[in-house]
Design goal:
878 residues; seven-stranded mixed beta sheet; alpha/beta; 31 strands; RNA-binding; elongated
Length: 878
RNA sequence: GGGAGCUUAGCUCAGUUGGUUUAGAGCAUCUGCCUUACAAGCAGAGGGUCAUAGGUUCGACUCCUAUAGCUCCCACCA
């Protein structure tokens, strides 16, 4: 039997073969047509990225949804692409050049960009190749990059549009400065971490007094050099006497005012706060309010500038150390305490953020946010899980303007052109800018050479927020067929940590430029963690390489593992054993196939009764599960869906159905059954296909002769049909009986080979031959007999209030039987008591719904009957 | 400091508006099996006073209050 087929399924060879087959035949490609559209745009990974477990989870989910949609009759498209990720990519290219001995500083902008593009062409987008291993059914012909010419045009269009609407402005503000990347970053790109640091108490002499001091507490003593005030609470009696006086900044001996503001917490430190308006956002605000001087003591790279007067050129952290002995020597240091505070780090470079005053471009968010907030709150857009609605609402209601300029070269350059008169115009290109400028300032007689384009580029998210629009050319060409057909997209699958960066802004962009939501559903995946609940990270080395995992367990196995334990929004505690389970499942399928494929068919044989029953049951079970699957998909409960399919195949199809229909050893199978088995098998592969695309395609092709271009990918998903609940219930009861007989075998240690008899203590007319046939087949029972009375000659059990007994002369230990029956009796009596307690409660009988009361009465009579049977049996044994 | 959420078997989680035979699943565990598809397997079994304490109710895993512990988000008091 099937000796030529290996008992182990080997996914590696199979998977590459089918991926090529799908891709070559264009099964992933979509063009608008008369069918309803289903569209997903990939969250574009960084062009520098390599596949990690988070991508695996995210993209597996997208693939499942897209594949299912295709099979449900939708014209499904999954648009892939990459993000230019300005900071990350620029940093990578700078490092790469450094390794080649090239310093970015000696390059012109054009030279650097040439290198960057070369790097991108050579090393970028690896991740898209890796996604193919996973089986991702992306429409590769549509692959986009956020800096493709058309995508870039859309970004510029949007910038100009917003500028013309008065929603983009330029101004000097306190921004989050990344001294390593030498650029501003947005508030969302700052991550606060708790650090063990020190709180330094430093005293400032009161001007005009020899021995009067005010002591302040600070975590950043180096910024003392930029102090321009000391602030205290107006009601703080300790400091009331200094009103109107000034203090002397240590070391630099600058005279600064003492100011009073309710912002100061009297309880913190000494209740006196040093003010450095150039280097702290709160100090900055106080500075504006109290008209303070601003002294910027840092260079852009975080070293101290000339303005500091001391420690010039030294890094800010070294300066923090170095200034302490200086303060001590000058007699200003009072004490140092340990202190835990939170420090902002740059998301991209992990450098400590330095608040810095600088000229930046901002986008006004208030008006953009309103319709986007409504779209989510009124249910036009659904979040899964729903709890993220709160997070979203809170952010949207408190939204701040978006700093969109970055002091980088890699990205979309801000389309603002400066004129010799220090004015600027915003335009799609230099020519347009020149025209506008000439109209505005005819007296200047400008030429193109007088225009100086802004040096900054835009925040990467300023292009990503257009993604669902721009991949279908919806900005430049809003009436094109594609955007009309595919937009809004059907679902967005992403991680909750970019809800503000990306999700919220895409909704704003969709409402602003199309007046419509960009997607109907947002599914937030959890974070992939290790078994110890730690985030996957390079530093910890706890992140497995997905490619290696796929080689070891097959892409199907890894997909199975990722999906089985990842309900929406829940973290996924990844463990290789999950993939192992997936691989084992593949192997199970493979062996089920081997079994079926090995049978000889004899068309002359009649279909046995047990087989006919099993086939009917299996078809009903499939329908039952199909309904569950449908319901679960609606709620994006993919784990539950996969689990019910898994159980359907393993427990129902393999463990039960195939065992029933399996012909006796070396005997052929009848033709009708064989065809029905193949139909069922095929149907199961179809239902499973979105989850495990490779093995299902392989087996689907092997079960029947197929033409060269046929694929399971495009087979219609089976429709939900009505189920015969009575049949399902009766079969379930038969399975319970089967379990009981098997338990008897187990306990008495009777081999399966040894045929048994089964006595049923019920009337002959209650006999259901079709189910008895199934029981007989699976338990190796030679005869099932209906008797009126119960015997004591065997191991007995009760199922659905019918008593059964397996006659086993010589195997039965009466004492043991009694013990078992007594324990059953105790349970049944306890149960009955519970029910009676309820029923004897008048208020329950009066106030509970009729149905519930009847249910309890049924419970009562069932329990009483069970007790009667047990007692009868016990009396006979005794 | 503000907000959201979580706490159900050893682990990871279901449990739909309070009532479906005194709580379910997968994995893990235990027992017996190399039974002619699969030991990456087969058959069977054990395991939970649903975080704690109150309350509402005829009835609470489910609703309310308090407490404890955990997670995440926002704010960023030097």
């Amino acid at each position: 039997m099937s000796a030529e087929i290996n008992t182990k399924y080997d996914p590696v060879a199979v998977e590459d073969k089918w991926y090529d087959f799908w891709n070559k035949n264009g099964f992933f490609h979509s063009e608008p047509d008369s069918r309803p559209a289903y569209s997903i745009v990939i969250p574009p990974p960084n062009v520098t990225g390599v596949l990690h477990m988070g991508h695996m989870l995210n993209n597996t989910i997208q693939d499942v949804l897209v594949r299912r949609a295709r099979m449900k009759g939708f014209n499904a498209v999954w648009v892939p692409g990459t993000d230019h990720a300005s900071i990350a990519t620029e940093a990578k290219v700078v490092n790469y050049l450094k390794e080649q001995g090239i310093d970015k500083k000696v390059l012109t902008r054009e030279e650097f960009l040439k290198h960057a593009w070369e790097w991108k062409e050579k090393y970028g987008g690896i991740i898209l190749k890796q996604l193919r291993k996973l089986g991702a059914s992306c429409d590769w012909e549509r692959t986009k990059f956020t800096m493709d010419p058309d995508m870039s045009e859309a970004v510029i269009d949007v910038f100009v549009d917003l500028y013309n609407k008065g929603k983009i402005y330029r101004g000097v503000r306190m921004v989050n400065w990344d001294p390593k990347a030498l650029t501003a970053v947005s508030d969302e790109e700052v991550i606060y971490k708790e650090l063990q640091s020190k709180l330094y108490y430093v005293r400032y002499r009161i001007e005009g007094e020899d021995n009067e001091y005010i002591t302040i507490a600070t975590t950043r003593p180096e910024t003392i050099l930029g102090d321009t005030a000391i602030c205290m609470h107006p009601d703080d009696e300790r400091y009331a006497k200094y009103k109107g006086k000034r203090a002397i900044v240590p070391l630099v001996n600058r005279s600064i005012p003492l100011i009073y503001d309710e912002y100061v917490e009297r309880e913190f430190g000494t209740g006196a706060l040093k003010i450095t308006p150039a280097h702290d956002i709160n100090d900055y605000n106080l500075g504006i309010k109290h008209h303070l001087e601003t002294i910027n003591i840092f260079n852009d790279n975080g070293t101290l500038s000339e303005k500091a007067q001391f420690l010039v050129g030294m890094d800010r952290f070294e300066a923090r150390e170095a200034i302490i002995p200086m303060l001590e020597k000058a007699g200003n240091l009072v004490k140092i305490e340990d202190y835990v505070n939170k420090v902002g780090f740059s998301e991209r470079t992990n450098e400590v953020i330095e608040p810095k005053l600088s000229m930046q471009w901002f986008c006004k968010m208030g008006e953009l946010a309103k319709p986007a907030l409504d779209a989510v709150m009124n249910g036009d857009i659904n979040f899964y899980p729903e709890k993220f609605k709160n997070t979203y609402a809170h952010w949207m209601e408190n939204i701040k303007d978006w700093c969109i300029s970055r002091q980088l070269w890699w990205g979309h350059r801000i389309p603002a052109y400066y004129l010799p008169n220090r004015e600027f115009v915003v335009a799609h290109n230099a020519d347009e800018a020149l025209n506008i400028a000439r109209q505005k300032y005819p007296e200047l007689s400008l030429t193109i050479n007088d225009l100086q384009q802004d040096e900054d580029v835009m925040d990467t998210w300023f292009s990503s927020w257009l993604w669902p629009l721009s991949v279908f050319d919806g900005i430049r060409n809003p009436d094109n067929e594609e955007i009309k057909y595919y937009y809004p997209t059907s679902a967005l699958i992403t991680a909750p940590d970019i809800i503000f960066f990306w999700v919220a802004r895409m909704i704003m962009a969709g409402m602003e430029w199309r007046g419509r939501i960009p997607f109907k559903d947002v599914y937030f995946t959890g974070t992939v963690r290790d078994k110890l609940h730690r985030k996957m990270s390079k530093q910890l080395g706890n992140s497995p390489d997905p490619i290696m995992l796929m080689e070891k367990y097959g892409a199907d196995g890894v997909r199975f593992g990722m999906l089985l334990s990842s309900p929406a929004g829940n973290d996924l505690l990844f463990d290789e054993s999950l993939c192992e389970q997936g691989r084992n499942f593949s192997n199970k399928l493979w062996n089920a196939f081997r079994l079926v494929k090995g049978w000889e068919i004899d068309a002359t044989i009649e279909q046995p009764l047990h087989t006919a029953t099993a086939v009917k049951w299996m078809q009903n079970r499939i329908n039952e599960v199909l309904a569950e699957v449908e319901e679960n998909f609606k709620r994006y409960r993919l784990s539950e869906t996969l689990m019910s399919i898994y159980k359907l195949i393993w427990d129902d199809f393999c463990s039960c159905f195939l065992e029933v229909v399996k012909p006796a050893y070396q005997k052929p199978i009848d033709g009708k059954t064989y065809k029905e088995i193949v139909d069922v098998f095929e149907k199961l592969m179809t239902i499973l296909h979105p989850f495990m695309p490779f093995i299902t395609e392989e087996l689907w092709h092997s079960l029947r002769e197929r033409s060269e271009k046929e694929t399971i990918m495009l087979v219609a998903m089976p429709e939900i049909a009505d189920t015969d609940q009575k049949l399902l219930d009766e079969f379930a009861n038969a399975r319970k009986v089967i379990e009981q007989v098997r338990r008897v075998r187990n306990e008495k240690n009777i081999a399966q080979k040894h045929a048994l008899r089964l006595n049923v203590y019920a009337d002959q007319e209650s006999c259901k031959p079709e189910f008895d046939a199934v029981i007989a087949k699976l338990c190796n029972i030679e005869n099932i007999e209906y008797k009126g009375n119960c015997d004591v000659d065997g191991a007995s059990f009760i199922e659905n209030n019918v008593q059964y007994s397996v006659p086993l002369t010589g195997f039965v230990d009466a004492a043991e039987e009694i013990k078992k029956l007594e324990s059953d009796l105790k349970y049944a009596e306890g149960f009955l008591q519970n029910v009676l307690k309820k029923l004897s409660n008048e208020r329950f009988v009066n106030s509970a719904p009729q149905q519930v009361v009847e249910m309890e009465r049924k419970k009562q009579s069932d329990a009483e009957e069970k007790i009667r049977i047990i007692k009868e049996q016990l009396s006979k044994l005794k």
